[in-house]
Structures are given as structure tokens and as C-alpha cells.
Amino acid sequence: MMMTNEKRELTNAYYEAKEGRSIVGKDYEAQDLIGTVVNIVSRDHIIVAVAEQEYEVYLSSIRFPKLGGDGVLEPEAYADEAKDFVRAHLIGRQVHVQLEYSRKPRYGSVFLGSALDSRNVSELIVAEGLDTVLGCNDIGVASNYYDAICTVESSAILNKKAMHSGVDPPVIIDLSNATWEEVGKACDNNIFVWAFDEYEKVEGFVESVIRTDSDTMDKIILLIHSNKKTWKIAFSLYGIVWPRGEEPYADEAFELLRQTVVHKRVEVLLETIDSDGYFMGALLESNTHVAIPLLKAGLATFEPFNPTAYDREFRRAQDSAITKKLKIWENNVEP
């Protein structure tokens, strides 16, 4: 059931008044935050860093499937998928938060993107069928976008998305945090097949890109269906280096990589496995290596001492950025 604007305003005003700070007759404006998501405490509880201060924010008016623990013996269906979706879309991303009211804990609506092209995270999650909208009687303070979220939920139910499908989620073998030894055992003839002195190309789906610390490469999380099983692996681009950690342009490089690959179907060509358990190789999206946009933008370099079949394309893209003195090449001096 949808909540009218009048009922929502009365409900929210009631909670403000209950705290002794009725908004009636005051020029009250909900606090807005623009910052970076630095931690996912739980699926509806995030930490947003604004300048040097951190704020706890809860996504309002939605209910996620429960994970195991805290008295719940088994996780509800799609609980892990919901958690991964939130992590993939929020961690390390800049967000705009509209707080519905000022009491603690802070509940609000979280938006990705610019003010002209923003996406409500709650709507995105509900649209995928990975959570549900709380009923009017179960809400302490209703989202200002409650009606829109309800509309998205109706569409997810109609289209039988995820938890509305009546079908259990597929079992996924997660190697995204595995050791080199574990990855090596699973690789040959399970995920990738070695033939004619190279690994055969396979198709994959990019679930997310995850930022790591400065000592390791950012993770491209791939889902690959092989031998009637679905594997989740950590992947990185062989022969390509881009800024990370606190290095200049690390944020821009990460964001461009994320925009280029996330939720895309790709062709995966494996070269090797590194000591951190990363699969290393090439990703092709629409027959184009996904490193090309990074190189053209001056946000990556290629390593010629790690030869690949794409070195000529890499060199052309990088030379273009060098000529234009873009980003990491802005102070480059030709010998």
C-alpha cells in the first residue's frame, strides 16, 4: 500500500515531535550530505565520510533478507546477493544523502551520481528483487521517496525478480578471497581449459569492482558459469597498471574502470594467476579490451615487459594520452 504525501509528512512530524523538536512552524530542512561511502556495516547500514567526519546512515523504508547469525540459523534466500549488491554499488563511491529526519540513528535516501543523473540506491536494490518495502505500519519514519520505491517493488514482483521468483539463487563457488593454492586447484579444467598452449576464452559477467589497499590491485569480481557451476573470482588486467590507494588519480581511475566494466558481459582470456590469488588476463567488452579507455584517458600505463596480444592497441591508446598530456602524463617530458 502506498503512503500519501500527507500521511508521510504527518508520520515523520510525529517522530520529530516525540523527540521534543516538532517541525511545525519552523523552517526545518533535512540535512543533506555529500561524501564517500567508506564502510558497509550491514546491508542497510553504511558509513559516509564527509571531509574528516564520518556519518552513520541507514536506508529507510526497506527490509533486506536476513543473513545467518544473530539467532538466525540459515540466511534467507538472496541475503548474500543483497549484501554483494550493496557493496558493489556503494563502497568507495561518492553519494548524496538526503536525511529524512535528524534523530539518531540517521535514516535517509542515498543517491549515486550527479544531481542531474542521480539514482536512488533503495530503488535500485528493490528493482533487482533483493529487498522489500516495509509496510506503512512497520515504518518509524517513511522515506520521502516511499511511493517511488513501492512502484519499483510492484514491477519487481510482476517480473518475478530474485526473491519474488520463487526460485532459490544459484549456488556460487566463491574464490574472490581465495589463496593462490585454492585458486590453482579450481582453475584447470574447472573454470578455464588449457588447450594448444593457452587457456580457452570463456564468457563472464562483471559483478563489481572493489577497491583494495595500496599493496594490492583493485579487484574485478567476475562470475563465470563453467561445468554446470558458477564461480566467483577476483580478476585483474594483465600488463596494465593504474593508480591505487592514495596515489594521484586513483579515484578517477577506479571510477572509469567501474563504469567501463560493471554489470557487463565480457570475454575472459586468462594469462596467469598471481601470488594474491588473482586471475590475470584480458577482458573484452564488445570486442574491445577494457583497458583501452583507461589508457586513452591517461589513467593507466601498460607494461611492455609483460607482452600480450594487445600491446599494439595499448601503445596507440597510451601514446594519445601522452601527446595530450592527460592525467598521469601531465608533467611528462619527452626524452
Automatic annotation (TrEMBL):
Residues 31-166, 200-331 form the TNase-like domain. It comes from the Eukaryota. It comes from Prunus avium (Cherry). This is Ribonuclease TUDOR 1-like. GO terms for cellular component: cytosol; nucleus. GO terms for biological process: mRNA catabolic process. SMART domains: SNc. Signal peptide: none annotated. PROSITE patterns: TNASE_3. GO terms for molecular function: nuclease activity; RNA binding.
